[in-house]
Write a structure and sequence with these properties.
179 residues; mainly alpha; 9 helices
C-alpha cells in the first residue's frame, strides 16, 4: 500500500471495527474516512476492496504487534505471545476477531475468504517459528483463537490459562525428549 492507501485503510479499519461490516454504506464509510468519494474509490474501487484494504492494514498491524520484542524461539516467546494477545484484546475491548467478523458479514466473497485464510495461515507459520517447534504451531493457533473468542467473557483468565497450557506443552515435550 502507498501512504494514501494506508491512511485510508487505517480509517476504514476503525469504521468497520466500530460499526461492523454489514451496516456502513459506502457514503458512511467515506464520511468516516474523511476523504472525497472520488479519492476513496480511486484507492479502493469497491466496497469489497474497502473491506480488503481494512483487513490488509489490520493484518500488517497485528503481525507487527505480536512480533515486536519477541524473545528467541522457545517457551518464553510462546508465553510472550499470549501476553501480547492479552494486550491486544484489552486495546480492542475484547471484541472477537475482525477477520472472522468480515467473513461472517460477506460469506460469498472469495477474496475476503482468501484474505482470512492468508492471515490465519501466516499466524500459524509464525507460531511454529515462535515456539521453535513446528509441531506446536497448530496447538498455539488453537489456543490463540480460543483466547480471542472467549476473552470478552473470561478476560485475563483466558490469557493465563493459555500460558499455563503452553508451559505444560513444553514440559511434556521436554520429558518425552529426555525419557
Amino acid at each position: 500500500m502507498n501512504d494514501a492507501q494506508e491512511h485510508i485503510a487505517a480509517r476504514l479499519e476503525q469504521v468497520f471495527w466500530n460499526r461492523g461490516f454489514a451496516e456502513p454504506s459506502v457514503p458512511e464509510l467515506r464520511a468516516g474516512v474523511g476523504v472525497s468519494m472520488r479519492t476513496l474509490y480511486r484507492h479502493f474501487p469497491s466496497r469489497e476492496a474497502m473491506v480488503l484494504g481494512a483487513l490488509e492494514y489490520r493484518h500488517q498491524r497485528y503481525l507487527k504487534y505480536v512480533r515486536e520484542g519477541v524473545s528467541a524461539p522457545g517457551l518464553a516467546a510462546a508465553e510472550q505471545l499470549f501476553d501480547k494477545l492479552g494486550g491486544w484484546m484489552r486495546m480492542t475491548e475484547g471484541k472477537e476477531c475482525m477477520f472472522r467478523q468480515a467473513l461472517a458479514a460477506n460469506p460469498d466473497s472469495s477474496d475476503i475468504e482468501a484474505m482470512v485464510k492468508r492471515h490465519k495461515g501466516e499466524l500459524l507459520r509464525f507460531f511454529g517459528e515462535l515456539s521453535g517447534q513446528d509441531r506446536f504451531a497448530s496447538k498455539l493457533y488453537l489456543l490463540h483463537e480460543g483466547v480471542t473468542s472467549c476473552y470478552a467473557e473470561m478476560g485475563e483468565t483466558a490469557v493465563e490459562d493459555a500460558k499455563e497450557m503452553v508451559r505444560q506443552m513444553f514440559k511434556a515435550a521436554n520429558e518425552r525428549q529426555f525419557s
